[in-house]
Amino acid sequence: MPNAPAAAQALAVLRLLARHTAPVPAAAIARDLDLPRSSVYHLLAVLRREGFVVHLPEERRWGLGVAAFELGSAYSRQAPLARVARPLLARLVDATTHNAHLAVLHGRDVLYVIEERAPGRPPLVTDVGVRLPATLTASGLAMLAALPPAQVRALFPSRDAFVQRHGVGPGSLPALRRELAEVRRAGFAAEDGSVTPDFASVASAVLDHSGHPVAGVAVTFPAAEVDGHERAAIARQVTRVAGELSRRIGGRSTAGTLASGTVP
């Protein structure tokens, strides 16, 4: 495909602009992408014509255009992550006979975007739209374990940043570090009674192409009904589904990233 390299370079320009909080000079774009300036100016001219970038002549810088915003808005409207995840979660429910859900990280909280309920199982507090402290949930711990150490420290700078329910859950950064180290060691996250007494959960993170956690897949079950052997089996199912969802969105293998992670 003769235009494939140019398309890849145009996408690289857009990704670079998206990583910056302010417009960027063309020279910096050329330097960071290791491209000739003439090629960068050609790419910027095409992207400007299509509305994906804007030129700020007074500042001699380039920023994202309205078309890029519209593309991001369309992504939100279509909710592709949820659409891709739903059938996988339905199969997870069939395989485990317990409730499954998908959550995303929102600051220090998790926001639940899907709940697939198993027949005959009671509703949980993890309904769609509910927010819970990330440090108390298996989904939150799975995603936090995949974040860079500096980002975890920024999210939890002091004891005041920690919230507990029912008197359980990490109350300090050192305690959270220990929990995240265990998540990386095991390859999945677990909680028992931190969210709801007598219920436990296991979870695994869904990672994008850069290794960033975009969601957490979890299964919740009555703690007294599921022994250690069964929990391990459920954890394998959850990790497999998270890995498949990561693959479908062009992301990385969850287990491999957690296993090689560093303790924040």
From TrEMBL:
> Keywords, A to Z?
DNA-binding, Transcription, Transcription regulation
Q: Which organism is it from?
A: Oryzihumus leptocrescens
- Give an example GO molecular function: DNA-binding transcription factor activity
Domain IclR-ED residues, every copy: 67-251
Cite the PANTHER family for this sequence.
HELIX-TURN-HELIX TRANSCRIPTIONAL REGULATOR, ICLR FAMILY, HTH-TYPE TRANSCRIPTIONAL REGULATOR RV1719
HTH iclR-type domain spans which residues?
Answer: 4-66
Q: What is this protein called?
A: IclR family transcriptional regulator
InterPro entries tied to this protein: GAF-like_dom_sf, HTH_MetabolicPath_Reg, Tscrpt_reg_IclR_C, Tscrpt_reg_IclR_N, WH-like_DNA-bd_sf, WH_DNA-bd_sf
